[in-house]
Amino acid sequence: MAEAPIKFGILGCANIARKLSRAIRLSPNSELYAIGSRSVERAAKFAKDNGFPDSAKVYGSYDAVLDDPEVDAVYMPLPTSLHVKWAVLAAGKKKHLLLEKPVALNVAELDLILEACESAGVQIMDATMWMHHPRTAKMEEFLFDSSRFGELKFVHSSFSFAADKNFLENDIRVKPDLDALGALGDAGWYCIRAILWAADYRLPKSVVSLGGTVLNSAGVIIACGASMEWDDGKTATFHCSFTANMTMDATVVGTNGVLRVNDFVIPYEENRASFLSAAEKPGIDENLQEWEPVPAEETVVATESPQEALMVSEFSRLVGNIKFRGASPEKRWPELSRKTQVVLDAVKASIDNSDQVIEC
Amino acid sequence: MAEAPIKFGILGCANIARKLSRAIRLSPNSELYAIGSRSVERAAKFAKDNGFPDSAKVYGSYDAVLDDPEVDAVYMPLPTSLHVKWAVLAAGKKKHLLLEKPVALNVAELDLILEACESAGVQIMDATMWMHHPRTAKMEEFLFDSSRFGELKFVHSSFSFAADKNFLENDIRVKPDLDALGALGDAGWYCIRAILWAADYRLPKSVVSLGGTVLNSAGVIIACGASMEWDDGKTATFHCSFTANMTMDATVVGTNGVLRVNDFVIPYEENRASFLSAAEKPGIDENLQEWEPVPAEETVVATESPQEALMVSEFSRLVGNIKFRGASPEKRWPELSRKTQVVLDAVKASIDNSDQVIEC
């Protein structure tokens, strides 16, 4: 490439940062430039274990990363409760921001982050990786083809995994002072995003949490679900949980077609992913015996890069447009983050108010 | 067979009766013996078109079928609003009863039917065909294997089809005086049964309809959904519709396993059916990259007889036990009918009361 790659600084040594370090390495327009941790030893070990170049900067604080003028962009996998502080600081230092999800504890905090980014003219994108998989674009072709899919009527999404005892006692995602949104923020984020994606990002008119929310002893959500309704009559449900076996499902039902995907968050295989689409109106013959047609068509999408590397490349492309060509930040990404957070807040409000219906 | 086959009389020439006529023909312990319609010409044509033997009785009324002392059992595909009258009359004439679903407009009507059957000592079974497919038994082996599936946490089921204009204007399932439960009674019945089946027939403690219920101009349900909650924290949702493309899905999520089936109501193929089960706890490696294991295992179940013929054979077997060996009616089937109707009534009550939570 003629242009220098975008230099990333990573704040903290979270597990997910291992995956993103690899993604930055795999992304041709991106460079692993710096890592900061409260412990410089941890930072050094992280850099060594995750393929940082010898020239990479290893810092003993987050501030040091933000103060490095060479850092173009920050990847921030900190606990959600720390996002507003560090994201606003990063934006203030003109760092572009790749922010882990959930992006904030609530819309009010997110708006502080978004305002800081807008005022600094920096790009913000949340790290919802599946948005960048070529399968997602392929599924969109189907969903937004009115003859094949028709009008959206119903979506169901589910993201669950059976966390072990150690996770349920010690992970940041079960701690009220760290990731206070629990399973809703971690797993539910993806379900809500998938539902909004299928609804072409139109917000529902109302949201209601479903009975059976499970809280841990500290009051953090371990499992919950919600239902949504739009003005035009379409509806959606989701379920998310830390205590049920793995699901990463989205079923999207239109008047003419159905789309099913069972691994939308992280494809089972890195280099290929599939989905089932039924773009016919199947029926049974007049004796109600034979299906015509059998409604199953699997589309397989191959990709040379994992979705997280594609995400990083797209983020760096946008940053490069700003840095080298004076472009403005792409507004689509903060808009999607905010819409997801608006619905997430509504679900949380419904849970906190005895499953009351919340208008969006 | 040493014993004479069970002689069936069919009340009415509904479309679904074509499928059941074939099922009775295919069932070795069952005989197509009589057909009754309000029009004897229609009855004669139906008998001719559906492989009735020349010796079959063709009647111009339902009463004539019930008055024929040779008729052992009645298959009743009448509109739901007529069930209570004709089922009670049939039981009074000591006819065993294979009753189309939904079995009644509400539990009060169903209880009149069940009391009449019990008092007459006749078998009653509802015509929920998928219960009798060998795939269902195979799925049960998985669901009730505590090491492979674990504890049930969540079920989602959906049954929808895109009805055409003629159906939406003229079918009995959109008419308040015929099948007043609309899509809830027709499609929702299967979802509720699937959920109860997965929950080992334990009733939920509460049911709430989801926003977005669609009614036609006569007030009949065209699309709706509901959520359920059990005392032990498991939850379920379903969606049913006459205006979305075909789905017949059940996803059953336990602590250790997941079961998925996309054609549970009527298998796409008559002689084989499959389901996906994941009986491992998949995880991703510490770099959050590689799946281990990839959670997909498809089980294919072959069957020589279609599920409706297996249903008829099981019904006739129970009737034969009563007729030839003095057995008592099998109570499991009316119990399952009643539990399904109890939940269906709760969904209807919630819809009729602005999505209020209804205790079961």
What is the element layout, followed by pairings?
The structure is a homodimer of 360-residue chains.
Chain A: E1 6-11, H1 15-26, E2 30-36, H2 40-49, E3 57-59, H3 62-67, E4 73-76, H4 83-92, E5 96-99, H5 107-120, E6 124-126, H6 134-143, E7 152-162, H7 165-170, H8 182-198, E8 206-209, E9 214-215, E10 221-229, E11 235-241, E12 243-254, E13 258-261, E14 272-278, E15 283-284, E16 291-292, E17 297-302, H9 307-325, H10 332-352, E18 358-359
Parallel strand pairs in A: 1-2, 1-4, 2-3, 4-5, 5-6, 7-11
Antiparallel strand pairs in A: 7-12, 8-10, 8-18, 9-10, 10-11, 12-13, 13-14, 14-17, 15-16
Helix pairs in contact in A: 1-9, 4-5, 5-10, 8-10
Describe the structure.
Two copies of one chain form a homodimer. Chain A folds into two domains: 148 residues, Rossmann fold (3-Layer(aba) Sandwich); 191 residues, Dihydrodipicolinate Reductase, domain 2 (2-Layer Sandwich), CATH 3.30.360. Chain A has ten helices and 18 strands. The longest helix of chain A is centred in the C-terminal third of the chain and has 21 residues. The first copy, chain A, is globular, with a radius of gyration of 21 Å. The termini of chain A are far apart. In chain A, 56% of the residues are buried. At the A-B interface, helix 1, strand 7, strand 10, strand 11 and strand 12 of A face helix 1, strand 7, strand 10, strand 11 and strand 12 of B.
What is the class of the largest domain in chain A in the CATH system?
Alpha Beta
Strand content of chain A: 25-35%
Pair of chains with the largest interface and how many residues each contributes = A-B, 68 and 68 residues
Low-confidence sequence ranges of chain A: none
CATH fold-level name of the largest domain in chain A = Dihydrodipicolinate Reductase, domain 2
The helicity of chain A comes to 25-40%
CATH architecture field of the largest domain in chain A: 2-Layer Sandwich
Our count of domains of chain A comes out at 2
Instruction: Name the average pLDDT of chain A.
Output: 95
Report the order of strands and helices of chain A.
EHEHEHEHEHEHEHHEEEEEEEEEEHHE
